[in-house]
């Protein structure tokens, strides 16, 4: 039941003291024409309502959550504790710089650490999330070409194995998107890239490792080809948790990168945010960065705006408390712990993939990075059980489904990301469940076509839900 359906007139949970100042009501034209709908409940009923909802949801604290390309991992609670300190929460972005030196140090130190990890020369924390960071990076590329009077560069190259937001961000920045198909090995087709590059190329957007979980072995050649035609190289760093501390995008030839602090660097991911998508760049792009960066002046920290800034991408300095969590994570793990985390992510993914590939068809049967993609196309032909059906079956076993039907270049795809925080015991249980579901598909396919049957909400009519969604509660007039 919804909270509105549990509402009973006259019930409440607190008594506010009488107002001790004069009450000012809005003018007639600005006043509500209908009474505001608010649920009326006791504190006891409301507490039980939200506890009931919590029991029906599934998160990383409940069980395995291998949502590919999203990094739904456990995040240490010390990071939350640091972000809750009054010295970080009880400040205002318009305070004088001398009164927030500790906060400025957080931004300065985070920039230094993340630039060291990515091989960049500077960074802005203003973008609110990944796609916002993509758009910011593309605006830097545009500003760079325009500053040189090179306005013929109107196209951005995006491989078909990139994150889905890449072409959308490029189009939003005013560019024409040129898609190139993947090579048989899952990487960028070099001949296709060469054919797409020209005097009208502004840049390349590359997700690496890509959405099939592979690190492109031709990465240095790719950036060389783009640079030779005068374009810049953008690195989608959403999958950086697979390579951080081992290789640096800046050393691969990339000029600009965005990071997902809410995926790689420990902020709970999902549920609407907050996120953080800082953008790092090489020195020739620093003059275009948005907002302010922290610099040292006369023995103190201060804010300084880039000379030819592209302008504000968000109010003030981004989601600051997310940066606090990321810095805590970085300082806790240290120089040795960062690469160990990424190596464990790769180890877990390869362990799970190799334990399943005798049954499930792997889209690319080679060493993967932090995630792998299975194709259930053969199983669907053989038993009539789809990737969606296997995903529904996982729900009955207490496991959140992996990403379904993405990337689009793999038919009947399931994209699995175990993350670095799961133990061998958890992975072994998940492997056992996957294998059981495969056998069920062959021996009793109807059981999967009906799944899930043990969840609070069982199998839904997803076509009806998509075509006729109920998006709001209708009150009685």
Automatic annotation (TrEMBL):
Domain Glycine dehydrogenase C-terminal: 341-440
Annotated positions of the N6-(pyridoxal phosphate)lysine modification: 263
Source superkingdom: Bacteria
Single GO BP term: glycine decarboxylation via glycine cleavage system
A Gene Ontology cellular-component term: cytosol
Gene3D superfamilies found in the cross-reference section: 6.20.440.10, Aspartate Aminotransferase, domain 1 (3.90.1150.10), Type I PLP-dependent aspartate aminotransferase-like (Major domain) (3.40.640.10)
Record bears the keyword Oxidoreductase: yes
UniProt keywords, alphabetically: Oxidoreductase, Pyridoxal phosphate
InterPro entries, per database record: GcvPB, GDC-P_C, GDC_P, PyrdxlP-dep_Trfase, PyrdxlP-dep_Trfase_major, PyrdxlP-dep_Trfase_small
Cofactor: pyridoxal 5'-phosphate
Reaction equation(s) it catalyzes: N(6)-[(R)-lipoyl]-L-lysyl-[glycine-cleavage complex H protein] + glycine + H(+) = N(6)-[(R)-S(8)-aminomethyldihydrolipoyl]-L-lysyl-[glycine-cleavage complex H protein] + CO2
The keyword Oxidoreductase is assigned to this record: yes
Record EC number: 1.4.4.2
GO molecular function annotations of the record: glycine binding; glycine dehydrogenase (decarboxylating) activity; pyridoxal phosphate binding
Subunit architecture: The glycine cleavage system is composed of four proteins: P, T, L and H. In this organism, the P 'protein' is a heterodimer of two subunits.
Annotated function: The glycine cleavage system catalyzes the degradation of glycine. The P protein binds the alpha-amino group of glycine through its pyridoxal phosphate cofactor; CO(2) is released and the remaining methylamine moiety is then transferred to the lipoamide cofactor of the H protein.
Family membership: Belongs to the GcvP family. C-terminal subunit subfamily.
Record protein name field: Probable glycine dehydrogenase (decarboxylating) subunit 2
Species this protein is from: Dorea formicigenerans
Protein encoded by which gene: gcvPB
């Amino acid at each position: 039941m919804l909270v509105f359906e549990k509402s009973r007139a006259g019930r409440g949970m607190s008594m506010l003291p009488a107002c001790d100042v004069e009450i000012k009501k809005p003018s007639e034209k600005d006043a509500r024409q209908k009474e505001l709908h608010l649920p009326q409940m006791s504190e006891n009923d409301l507490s039980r309502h939200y506890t009931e909802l919590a029991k029906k949801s599934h998160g990383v604290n409940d069980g395995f959550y291998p949502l590919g390309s999203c990094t739904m991992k456990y995040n240490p609670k010390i990071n939350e504790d640091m972000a809750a300190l009054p010295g970080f929460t009880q400040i205002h972005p318009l305070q004088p710089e001398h009164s927030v030196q500790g906060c400025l140090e957080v931004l300065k130190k985070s920039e230094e650490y993340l630039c060291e990890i990515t091989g960049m020369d500077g960074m802005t924390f203003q973008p609110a999330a990944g796609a916002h960071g993509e758009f910011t990076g593309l605006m830097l590329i545009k500003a760079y070409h325009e500053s040189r009077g090179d306005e013929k560069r109107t196209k951005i190259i995006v491989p078909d194995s990139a994150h889905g937001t890449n072409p959308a961000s490029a189009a939003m920045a005013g560019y024409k998107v040129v898609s190139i198909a993947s090579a048989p090995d899952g990487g960028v087709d070099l001949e296709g890239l060469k054919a797409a590059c020209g005097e009208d190329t502004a840049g390349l957007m590359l997700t690496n490792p890509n959405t099939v979980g592979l690190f492109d072995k031709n990465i240095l050649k790719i950036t060389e080809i783009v640079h030779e035609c005068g374009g810049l190289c953008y690195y989608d760093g959403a999958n950086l948790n697979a390579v951080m501390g081992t290789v640096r995008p800046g050393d691969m030839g990339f000029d600009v990168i965005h990071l997902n602090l809410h995926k790689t660097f420990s902020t709970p991911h999902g549920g609407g945010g907050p996120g953080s998508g800082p953008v790092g760049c090489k020195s020739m792009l620093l003059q275009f960065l948005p907002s302010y960066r922290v610099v040292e002046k006369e023995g103190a920290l201060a804010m300084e705006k880039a000379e030819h800034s592209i302008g504000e991408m968000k109010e003030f300095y981004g989601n600051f408390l997310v940066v606090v969590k990321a810095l805590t994570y970085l300082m806790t793990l240290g120089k040795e712990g960062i690469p160990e985390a990424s190596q464990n992510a790769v180890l877990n993914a390869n362990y799970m993939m190799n334990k399943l590939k005798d049954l499930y068809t792997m889209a690319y049967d080679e060493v993967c990075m932090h995630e792998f993609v299975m194709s259930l196309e053969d199983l669907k032909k053989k038993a009539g059980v789809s990737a969606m059906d296997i995903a529904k079956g996982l729900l009955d076993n207490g496991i959140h489904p992996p990403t379904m039907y993405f990337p689009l270049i793999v038919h009947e795809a399931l994209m699995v990301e175990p993350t670095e925080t799961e133990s061998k015991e958890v992975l072994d249980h998940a492997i056992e469940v996957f294998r059981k579901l495969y056998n069920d598909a062959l021996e009793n396919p109807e059981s999967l076509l009906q799944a899930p049957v043990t969840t609070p909400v069982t199998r839904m009519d997803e076509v009806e839900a998509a075509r006729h969604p109920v998006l709001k509660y209708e009150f009685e007039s």
